[in-house]
Specification:
alpha+beta; GTP Cyclohydrolase I, domain 2; four-stranded antiparallel β-sheet; globular; NADPH-dependent 7-cyano-7-deazaguanine reductase
Length: 125
């Protein structure tokens, strides 16, 4: 797959994730996205979160500008926090075919309650 978003000032937010070849599958890669926003599916109120992605590559690395643009597509979407962790996990697994991947969403407190949800994928041996 060609990288079309990195270095492209015209790149638009969409749900496509770009990857690149990575030879060292023993690496453990962590990505923190600290400026995520979406909306409550019931009230429409904005929610802010940090999203952490931990993965062991299965031959592909995640290009981070495409991830940034992917995450921007949720800005106006109403979604439950628990569903978000699984949706992002499934999309990343489809793009990367990793050995292991965990997505953790840590939402800021609203009404005095903070929520964190994790969703993990492990490749079958």
């Amino acid at each position: 797959m060609a990288l079309t978003k990195l270095g492209n000032p015209e790149a638009k937010a969409d749900r496509s994730l770009e990857t690149f070849p990575i030879d060292d599958t023993s690496q453990e890669i962590r990505i923190d996205c600290r400026e995520f926003t979406c909306r409550c599916p019931i009230t429409g109120q904005p929610d802010w979160a940090t999203i952490r992605i931990d993965y062991r590559p299965g031959g592909r690395g995640l290009e981070t500008k495409s991830l940034k643009l992917y995450l921007e597509t949720f800005r106006e979407e109403g979604i439950f926090h628990e569903h978000l962790a699984t949706l992002i996990r499934d999309d990343l697994v489809a793009a990367l075919a990793p050995v292991q991947l965990t997505v953790t969403v840590n939402f800021n407190a609203r009404g005095g309650i903070a929520l964190a949800a994790s969703s993990t994928y492990r490749r079958e041996a």
